[in-house]
């Protein structure tokens, strides 16, 4: 509906409208991974998209994306022997987004063969979070003590809705006048500390800063982020 309204208001042609699919990997950074991104917690992701070109330099894209997020302390037990929290989670996410794309650095004959693009916008996502402690599913909020730290572990067996703000960049290649092959990667900001159900509450003794000096780098982040990296193929439908 939004794209159809834009076509009528801006006087654009139907040839400016395309449909496509994408496939790639998703992951997250949060309290259950030791760094910003870890290949052990990558999961497949897929979706559908619609794009309206507003001329050579700007496009509007909307899409529905399925994103699977996960984290497991046992993946790092061999690297960090005292990491014995035993927490794992899976989060099933469906995301609906509306994005503005800026097409820059166009290459090729008449600059029509490829283009770098940057995008940003807003998305709403529905998530269903499941958490386990030592392999057993948690049904209620639990406190876990880890290296003199108190963590609140809060499962949510019902779907919850949130807002996020996707930003990223991509490279578009145009094999023909009606097709586009695109590589893109982007992160979703604004998810807060809700994706993995783990929240830092404080230290048992001493100051939080002193207690956290004993932790491996990267754990107990204030905010969770999730991302998608992959390929998209779109076709002009007329």
Keywords:
238 residues; mainly beta; Porin; eight-stranded antiparallel β-barrel; three-stranded antiparallel β-sheet; 2 helices; 12 strands; 6% helix
A few lines on this structure:
The protein is built from two helices and twelve strands, in the order H-E-E-E-E-E-E-E-E-E-E-E-H-E. With 238 residues, it is mainly beta. It has a single domain, classed as Porin.
Report the count of strand segments: 12
CATH topology: Porin
Our count of domains comes out at 1
Task: Give the CATH architecture.
Answer: Beta Barrel
Would you tell me the overall average pLDDT? 81
Specify the CATH class.
Mainly Beta
Query: Termini distance?
Result: 18 Å
Question: What's the number of helices?
Answer: 2
Q: Label the overall shape.
A: elongated
Spatial order of the strands forming the largest sheet: 1-2-3-4-5-9-10-12
Largest sheet features? 8 strands, antiparallel, barrel
* Low-pLDDT ranges: 1-14
Instruction: List the helices and strands in order.
Output: HEEEEEEEEEEEHE
């Amino acid at each position: 509906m939004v794209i159809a309204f834009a076509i009528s208001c801006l006087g654009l042609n139907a040839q400016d409208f395309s449909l496509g699919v994408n496939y790639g990997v998703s992951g997250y950074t949060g309290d259950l991974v030791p760094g910003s991104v870890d290949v052990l917690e990558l999961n497949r992701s897929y979706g559908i998209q619609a794009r309206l070109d507003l001329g050579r330099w700007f496009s509007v894209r909307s899409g529905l994306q399925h994103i699977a997020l996960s984290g497991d302390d046992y993946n790092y037990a061999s690297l960090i022997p005292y990491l014995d929290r035993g927490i794992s989670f899976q989060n099933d996410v469906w995301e609906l987004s509306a994005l503005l794309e800026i097409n820059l650095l166009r290459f090729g004959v008449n600059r029509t063969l490829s283009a770098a693009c940057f995008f940003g916008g807003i998305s709403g996502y529905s998530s269903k979070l499941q958490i386990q402690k030592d392999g057993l599913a948690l049904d209620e909020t639990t406190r876990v003590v880890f290296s003199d730290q108190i963590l609140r572990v809060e499962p949510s067996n019902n779907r919850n809705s949130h807002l996020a703000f996707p930003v990223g960049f991509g490279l578009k290649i145009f094999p023909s006048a009606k097709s586009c092959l695109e590589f893109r990667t982007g992160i979703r900001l604004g998810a807060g500390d809700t994706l993995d159900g783990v929240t830092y509450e404080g230290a048992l003794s001493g100051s939080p800063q002193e207690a956290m000096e004993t932790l491996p780098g990267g754990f107990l982040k204030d905010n969770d982020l999730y991302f998608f990296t992959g390929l998209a193929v779109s076709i002009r439908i007329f």
